[in-house]
Structures
1.
Amino acid sequence: MERQSQKSSKTTVKRIAGAAQRDRPQQYGSKGANTSKASRKIAKNNLFVAVSGTISDGHKFISNAISDGAIAIILEQFPEEIDEDITYIKVKNSNNALGIVASNFYNNPSERIKLVGVTGTNGKTTIVSLLHQLFTLLNVKAGMLSTIQNKIESKIITSTHTTPDAIQINLLLNKMIDAGCEYCFMEVSSHAISQRRVNGLTYSGGVFTNITQDHLDYHNTFAEYRDVKKSFFDSLSKNAFALTNKDDKNGYKMLEATKAKKLSYSLKSFSDYKCRVLENQFEGMLLQINKVDVWVKLIGDFNAYNILSVYAVANQFGFSDYDVLTALSMLNSAEGRFQFVRNEDAITGIVDYAHTEDALKNVLSTINNIRSNAEELITIVGCGGDRDKAKRPLMAKVACNLSNQVIITSDNPRSEKPEEIIEDMLADLDPIQKKKVLVITDRKQAIMTAGRLAKKDDIILLAGKGHEKYQEINGEKFPFDDMEELKQSLKINN
């Protein structure tokens, strides 16, 4: 058995993966990327990649993989017992190696499709969804990889993570190419960048939306979170474009070290792509994009940024302004992103995925800019368990400051007690803010209560879960649909 040095390991991985691609064994195996449920089944003549995950370590499964038929192992540390019939390839980082292997195995699909990555705290899902819609309207075959769902043209593939693992990404990209897709639009999460799930991919472009406090349970500090996002742009080639939100105070930083073509978009300052909001209603807004007026179905400044970035991407790929602007007017918001219904009493119910302080502030500010203030604004909000605790009191404060009535409830408590999460949210509220608050732990009851409290013309915002069709409690997902519960509360039958 030859033990490869770290210096030569990348070349070795590329060589082995290239050979595997030509011979096409059944599949690679990967255990421990996140949980055992995400593990691939190992069969005879497979390559097993031992990934050190956040929950489990794939190195613990090496002997099992060999027993199941694996003939080669990529690893970071050699096991105590070496099997002379097995090829071991030691690498510095298994996740990085997995990206190279997966890319080579599927014949580098990201080099055969125009891949655009979208990263940032808020807006990723909306932008990816809008791009997929837009290019479809332009009669161009496209795929998408997003939090809500993955798509190959119109075919929907269930999504379990914001960004899939390297094997799934390359598999899906290859399927898109087989289906004739020319473009793919992909959410790129900070977790995926940090865990090197997107390594080995070739991007035609990258988009930065914004960055606010989120995922500090994982990244520890805001600076670390920001720099992980930045590393995505650092990795772009000179043949790609890097499009950043100039109005975000960290937008400039994303472009500091990139080799890609540097571009910016803005609502407030001089930039390559400029937009003004001329009118804002619940039914849509009138925008002026690069001095041309266009009516769109989405509302709010945050969506104006999303629309503008979509326009910019299409422009970079050479589509005509007329065709793009016409298509923009036909786009619908992503599921669970500022979706609204209205009942016979003219009570408006809004469901939005806002799960950060900034996202909640954006949505509430948009509502307040549209409403007359004669009506009441009731906000239902909670915070997810096992996630950044620092944002909990901040979200409660924003809700109280920008709403007439606040119902604090359970979101996805996961392994935490809902009551303790709610206590964290209430911790920094002053007496005046607390007077606005009702605490109803049961989310269904909270929604029903809001429906009973609302009077003619009032507005209910149901924030936090958006498109999710479940509530996660103690490791189990229970069916729960915010929009359906809200409709029931407002006695809307369709």
Note: The first strand starts at residue 29 and ends at 31.
2.
Amino acid sequence: MSATVESNERPDYDKVIEDIADYVTSYEVKSDEAWDTARNCLMDTLGCGLLALRFPECSKHLGPLVEGTSVPNGSRVPGTQFRMDPVKAAWDIGCIIRWLDFNDTWLAAEWGHPSDNLGGILATADYISQNRVSKGEKPLTMKTVLEAMIKAHEIQGNLAIENSFNRVGLDHVVLVKVASTAVVTWLMGGTKEQIMAALSQAWVDGQSLRTYRHAPNAGSRKSWAAGDATSRAVRLADITMRGEMGIPGALTAPQWGFYDVLFNKTNKDQKLKPKDDWQFKFQRDYGSYVMENILFKLSFPAEFHAQTACEAAVTLHPEVKDRIDEIEKIEITTHESAIRIISKQGKLANPADRDHCLQYMAAVPLIFGELNADHYENSFHENHPVIDTIREKIQVIEDNQYSKDYHDPKKRSIANALQVFFKDGSHTDKVVVEYPIGHRRRREEGVPVLENKFKANLATRFPEHRVSSIFEHCRQQSSFEQIPVNEFMDMFTI
């Protein structure tokens, strides 16, 4: 081939893209644990969205782009009166789900929150169902929504196990866009070929930088970025279903593909990675592993790497609450990922900055015995300068074993330990928490807490009789799966 021309032989779709499409179209979910966990996940995720509606910084983003617009058979946004096209509805649902950093999480080489995908899934399923009913056809059922959730969780989580996007400077919402694109195209009736075409568009898109998650630029974009990603997925699926062609070599094309452009350099020193590390690696085949092992934030609306630190702080609170002024130093022993993401010093500029600060999230429950969403607000922080005083006394130490156990597929711990030292030379015991209550290892203990969290979040938006009705509809697996999607969404309409 001459140096002045390029081969124009069109390739087959990249194997990574084909494998995802095969999984979405062909895999049958047989795990009872996955189905049950998906239902609990749906409850938890919607509850987080309803709670976020209390905060004007979130609610200001919601509603149609043209005020007053109402779309026939439009997708509903839970807890609101909005009825919109599924693209904007997906944005809004994804935004409220993610706003408070209180929905589920997945920790591996890459982090993320697979329930973010529910924005695109629910908006699309509601729109399809209402249109079917208007034509005298059968709507989708909530079982289909749960299946889409299980598969979106699996795609996002499996890609994350061995592949670190943050280490090349990209934000994890790229995986939300990819996972949502796959399952939303499937919900729309897409074939394997159409799912591959849509996925290729998702990989070719420009991807979000992590700038908005890290000091000193952390801000509220991290609260709507996933909504933006799942909304984009609905748009790409729609474009594809209208007949738009795909880009088969989206990942592997030399010079122009995702791998060569966005996945070949280390983030910190901008050096090229070894050539073998330019392409994605996989620990396991697609199944239902991620949903079965998903982590729930049940006690604290805090970045997940801090959950166990918060629990340790609550444990120590009774012992230190009357000795706050006597504290000499506090040691937080943690794992490498927590240090990289949320360990900060200096002024915290906004709520999004605070809910990604390990020291802040440990200091508040140590002082007050609890941590809730209101504790991140500017007014609370400004009225309690003692929080920053305590932050300055915190020393963060990495425990190499904690870091190893974090990545161990048999453990997947998220360990933190707290110990408080006083000026008189005395100290508390070192309180170690390896697994937060939302971990699979504590699932039996955690589900009642999840259900109570859901009911409390429902109560922020609905009267008691509706709270009871919604909860009863959600708690029985077999009957829940048969609920038409449009009727389920009716329950959440104001």
Note: The first helix runs from residue 15 to 26.
3.
Amino acid sequence: MAKSIMIQGTMSNVGKSIIAAALCRIFKQDGFSCAPFKSQNMALNSYITSEGLEMGRAQVFQAEAAGIEPSVLMNPILLKPTDNVGSQVIVNGEVLGNMKAADYFKYKKRLVPDIMNAYNTLAEKYDIIVIEGAGSPAEINLKKDDIVNMGMAKMVGSPVLLAGDIDRGGVFAQLLGTLMLLEEDEKSLVKGLLINKFRGDKNILKPGLDMLEQMGGKPVAGVIPYIYCDLEDEDSLSGKLEQTENSGIIDIAVIRLPKISNFTDFDVFRQFKDVSVRYVSKVSELKKPDLIIIPGTKNTISDMKWLRESGLETAIKKLVSENIPAFGICGGYQIMGKKIEDPDCTENGGSIAGMGLLDIVTVFKNEKTRTRVSGKFKNISGIFSVLSGKQFSGYEIHMGESYGIKNSMLEFSDGSTGGDSHDNIYGCYVHGIFDENGIAESIVRSLYTAKGLEYIGKGIDRKAYKEQQYDILAEEVRKNIDMDFVYKIIEEGV
């Protein structure tokens, strides 16, 4: 059976996912087989495995860092928020149903066998399991029947490293306060402390570290600097979503829908030196970009209402009338159509007029489409006609079906068609469609040409680029964490 190490945090967004990914990479580099694990993830960024099962993307990039194929075993429970008090509950990659928070809180202990089966299956195959917690273990209102933080650590007997975020301030209070709120048996599982996202002179920090160790009774295992590498972010707390100003020659504006999902679809464009990817939630922020992207969403109808009420619908349509290209992915594709209908109350029921940029009508169904796809672009018109004939691959996750396609954009490997396009307006259900075969580069070149400029950059191999970023991450973490100590606590266990 595998040994384990668990990364917990003092709060959300302290960098647990990134630290876990770094350790996965380091263990791989050191010759160990390793797998990530998170019993319960809450995120709107999800992924479809080769088996057609849905899981959180954090464990996907951790698996990539470990050099292994993502498996739903790495994330047996995924919660996708539908509103402020409820989520779609996905267990072992399949939809269990929608639950209010209070109902799920009562239900979740019934999922322990699923968690343990997933964990034990991985533990039989790998040398080390890198477990990630969620939020904070010190949420005293949630500690009863916990299955993701100390509850998880207890179930598998895993040593814990507790991480705090110094970049947001108050890191000593974060760490000491968290330790104070833990029960003694929980505190005993914490073997060391990590300070993450440090900028500055460690010599100035040293007196604080000494006091932290003295007051907390736990050694500081590492002070990890703010690492500048390009990796995926798990959820809507991502700092990427805060960029609203153009900083490049090419300006790509992604509409920041209230329930935005799978915004990692557009990370590939960030690899291009003079391309700015910014997220827009106000008309005043939209300005006149070179490309507008309407992303996926967990609540298509409510986000369509928001788009209309915010004035962004009108602003986008005006720009489209001036030949600014627009591309919709998944829920964004549905929004671009004539109408969205929800007869079975898959979301909240009813129907709403879409933007009318495409002729499609979308009807929600209770059955979720979950599949990996591949194929090629058909002969399409407009600014991105250069994509015609290019191969693509990706995955689909959606609850609706769209009808009335006039100019199908994609031909799938099974002979079926999908997506729709008209002039400079494009839409489809495929997540990850920009990632491979020079598709993003072709789009960037076309945008340069439209401005009367020549793109002189080189194409980027997305997979090779990501591998490079994982190595950068591992190198920086290895330099700033006591790996001898980490291996020691893994070997000793609890």
Note: The two ends are 15 Å apart (CA to CA).
